[in-house]
User: What shape does this take?
Amino acid sequence: MNNQLSDKINSVTPSATLEMAAKARELRGLGKDIIGLSLGEPDFNTPDYIKDAAIQAVKDGYNSYTPVDGYVALKDAIITKFKRDNNLTYERNQLVVSTGAKQALYNVAQVILNKGDEVILPCPYWVSYSDIVKLADGVPVEVPTSITTDFKMTPAQLESAITPKTKMLWYSSPCNPSGSIYSENELRALADVLQKHPQIIVVSDEIYEHINYGVTTHASMASFADMYDRTVTVNGVAKAFAMTGWRIGYIGAPAYIARACNKLQGQVTSGANCIAQRAVITALIESPSRVNYMVDEFKGRRTLILDLLNAIDGFKCNEPEGAFYVFPDVSAYFGKTLQGTAINNASEFAMYLLEKANVATVTGDAFGNKNCIRISYAASEKEIREAIARIEKVLV
Ligand SMILES: *Cc1c(COP(=O)(O)O)cnc(C)c1O
Assistant: This one.
């Protein structure tokens, strides 16, 4: 039979992080002892006070369809959170709760973009951005950055990437995969450029907000009065609260954008899961300091993995200020032959580490950067030590 798939789905690249995880699983199935540092997922359990709220919700009979844009009680918790953590004021009609921040991002792309509209993506960017944009018939416009600017886009770079077709700018801060954080001043400088281009909507993905190691204070683009009406603030509980599988994310946005996302979601998935939403009310109302123990643990591992990687000649690391990844530049190995294997690019390097060192990482290509690999340190110190020791061994 002919392949009857749409051009659209054929144009989408499978998620590289999920693919790497699948490949690691396959090798484990063959009996190999693989250390997985590829997935962006905390290795902690969801905190008990949040689990208890979910258990209570089951007992209280929360089992019906939920409002498409989220329970009112959850929206009120989100309003409290935005005010408390970000000094952002949103009304209920500016909020939409979705099945993960990923769906929230997908909704926004679908309701804003027309065919051919350009979306500026500072590289490295989160792996799904470019495909979410393509699924909305948008055109990703990659702005390369490097370790010399701590993987941050400069105002001049933004200015020169803008064309009459530019409709959006998307970024995450703290950034997955680089861990970089835009300071308030840096965001202000980008906002100053955007002032001259009022048609551009900003998507600010702040899902790692609470995983911040205290060097740069978290700042939100929407907190600038002149950006508020054109910024979509995306957040979720997956990362900071160790709730990846619960699938709850949300946006704060201009009301017309929230209304459009609500309309779309109502025809696609309906409201997000009832029990998870009840649990997230507790996660957001309680002080975020209750999850500091996880942040402290990540911070210790960050120091460890940076020390270990910086001791390897060919690895050049920036110092991540948030999230739980390092994004070393490994281009020093390109063009070399390691133990009989030619290494020409980051993909081949990551594959070499998987096959020879039994350590799963992700190629920077997936994030729009050809010189780096992403290593997640959401793993125990023992695993981190063992993984880097194995890597070091196969590099000589
Ligand atoms: C994990 C991640 C998401 C997706 O979050 P979910 O709530 O699990 O859908 C979105 N953006 C970034 C930058 C992420 O790392």
Notes: The radius of gyration is 21 Å.
